[in-house]
Amino acid sequence: MSDGPKAMIECQDIHKYYGDYHALRGIDLTIREGEFFSLLGPSGCGKTTLLRTIAGFEDISSGAVLIDGKHMEDVPANQRPTNMVFQSYAIFPHLSVAQNVAFGLRRDPRGKAEKAALVEEALGMVGLKGYGNRAAHALSGGQRQRVALARALILKPKVLLLDEPLSALDRKMREQMQVELIKLQRQVGITFVLVTHDQEEALVMSDRIAVMFEGGIAQLDEPEALYARPRDRRVADFIGVMNFLPAQIIGETDSHVTVQVGGLGQVDLPHSQISRANPDDPEPTIGFRPETMTLIGPSQPHTQARETEAVIDEVVYYGDMTYYDLRLENVPEPVRISMRNVFGRDVQAVGTRTRLAWSPGSLVLFR
Amino acid sequence: MTKRIFDAEARQGYSLIAPPFVYALLILAAPLLTILAYSFLTDGYLEVVKEFTLENYAQVFSDPIVRKIMLRSLLVAGLVTLVTVVLAFPVAYYVSFMVRPERKSMWLFLITIPFWTSYLIRVFLWKVILGYNGVINSTLTGLGIIDEPLTFILYNVNSIVLTLAHAYAPFAILPIFVALEKIDRSLLEAGRDLGESRVMTFWRVTLPLAMPGVIAATLIVFIPTIGDYVTPELIGGGKIPMIANLIQVQMLALDNRPLGSALAVTAMSIVAVVSLIFLFLNRRFLKVRQ
Questions:
Q1: A29 found inside a domain
Q2: Contact status of A155 with chain B (Cβ, < 8 Å)
């Protein structure tokens, strides 16, 4: 461990049962110091349970949690070097903003004036300078969020745990807070662990993401790797949009697999482009992202890439983007392609016969 | 303005509240005003002389017996309130925090069981339990633990406080329970997360947020107990009267209605002042909560 970054949180084979329900199924995870780490998954996948386990609000049935190298088994929540931003923010309604932020400083030996300066500094850090005397109930959702952040960060924890902190905010506010959280994390250098069900949020903010399904970690990777090379079909389905085409494996060598893809024809794929299919649907399929293929207008010349004939089935206009649902020959379900509406490119009409340009490098085989 | 008062919707509203309004006027306001009027009239033995006087109030405020009984009533009501609220809080806390959600309504139902029998019968039952030859004393003498029956549990302030505290327990448990139920449980986790032990979290988060319920319970218990008549009469054996007993004596036994009325008005004013102080406190706690 001396060469790489230090491990801040280590989860070792954590199991958690609620009665008969197996909520966490053998979680092995290392979160590095100073990292922005996300636990991503659909509701009920155990991500919040795992976060609460790290915070000390849930006992684990077996396994171990280590924070900064120390076993947390006998350390209660109030003595762990973690602080949490709750989903509901949990701002104390009977206290002012400053009293909320100063809540955890009670046993701090510093003087009153010094603490007041700390509170003001923490409020300044989250953009709430001068809000100290406001009553907590008079704050907007975004402001509560900031108070919750200041209240946690003032204690300088080793780890900040964030439980779906942005889910209650409207879209614009959420996007703004995402950027602010990233900046804040870089500024304070504390390890952040974020729980979210929003794949976009996780991709935007995280250094690394653990995708969880049914109490286990399906894939732990950097955002780019997670998006481009999902390790199995569930992950591919959950993160972003992915098109699936039926496929048939017709040959395999040490270096590549030869696949007959419905609508696209025969391709050779290296082993690095092969992921696992769902266990309950073992038929091989080919997946690709909407933005990895391009529509070519009828007047445009042929390209170096491979081309396939297609008919536009549906057009969804998003302003900056247009989504096209295309019908390929011999494929029952339409595939979705996204195109940037750059200058000079017209939005095409439904029913147009067009060509689809693509390269085998953007395909992933699930089998 | 006149137009608004008489539009159809308003008329319907007024006609709907009219019957209870008239009823309340006759049953509550009229007797109250009569009492207020009586308290300023002269007593002519067996009859009320229609002559304005402040003599009744002068007597109420100067008579040492009245003062003693008034103070005793305040003391008893204060003690009952203290005992009831202090005992009710753990019960409410237990039901709100420890009982599983699907069992809570059953617990509340159990708490209201004492209301199934009349107040008078419950008071009598306490007399049976606490009496000279009552359940407690005969059991203890029968077991040879004591030779003489205990006397400190009957016909004194202790027994009055005990009986009233039992009678008013549900009235204190319910508002405290409601206040505790409203507390967002993540606030308690936040308290722990910010480094406080369970005890300190209770002290700094749970208790302040439960205060509106505690103050409501205090008022609900204090106001009726200060004017309680039955319990001092039966449990106190008539030897330790409270203000209601004194009013009854003046009104009926001595037929001095003006003095009785002046006592009633004074008692009511004292209760009103105490209640207003509590309401003010309640407002202060509530102000931050909304």
A1: yes
A2: yes
This prediction's pTM:
0.82
C-alpha A141/C-alpha A131 separation (Å) is 14
Kindly report the CATH number assigned to the domain that includes residue A228: 3.40.50.300
Predicted complex: ipTM over 0.90? no
Residue A27 in any domain: the answer is yes
Q: What is the pLDDT of residues A177-229, one digit of tens each?
A: 999 999 999 999 999 999 999 999 999 999 999 999 999 999 999 999 999 88
User: Which chain B residues are closer than 8 Å to A95 by Cβ?
Assistant: 288
A37 CA: distance to closest CA in chain B (Å)? 20
Return the residue in A86, A87, A92, A100 with the most chain B beta carbons within 10 A, the one to mutate for interface testing. A92
Backbone angles phi, psi at A281, to 5 degrees: -140, 75
In a domain, A316, yes or no: yes
Q: What is the DSSP letter of A306?
A: E
Q: Which residue ranges in chain B fall short of pLDDT 50?
A: 1, 288-290
Provide the number of structural domains found in chain A. 2
- Judge whether A88 lies within some domain: no
Instruction: Please answer whether residues B175 and B278 qualify as being in contact, where contact means their C-beta atoms are separated by less than 8 angstroms.
Output: no
Q: Which residues of A touch B212 (CB under 8 A)?
A: none
Nearest residue on chain B to A163, alpha-carbon basis: B186
Relative orientation angle of helices B64-93 and B257-289, to the nearest 10 degrees: 30
Determine the number of helices (DSSP H) and then strands (DSSP E) in chain B.
15, 2
CB contact under 8 A, A104 and B194: yes
Domain B64-289 = CATH 2.60.120.920: no
A210 and A72: one domain? yes
Tell me the two tokens of residue B85.
């609220």
Q: Are residues A345 and A199 in the same domain?
A: no
What burial class does residue A195 get, using C-beta atoms within 10 Å of its C-beta: 0-12 exposed, 13-18 middle, 19+ buried?
A: buried
State pLDDT tens for residues B137-183: 888 888 888 888 877 777 788 888 988 999 899 999 999 999 999 99
Chain B within 8 Å of A82 (Cβ-Cβ)?
Answer: yes
Q: Do B195 and A90 touch (CB under 8 A)?
A: no
Question: Residue A119 in contact with residue A132, Cβ under 8 Å?
Answer: yes
| Residue range(s) defining the domain that contains residue A295 | 290-358
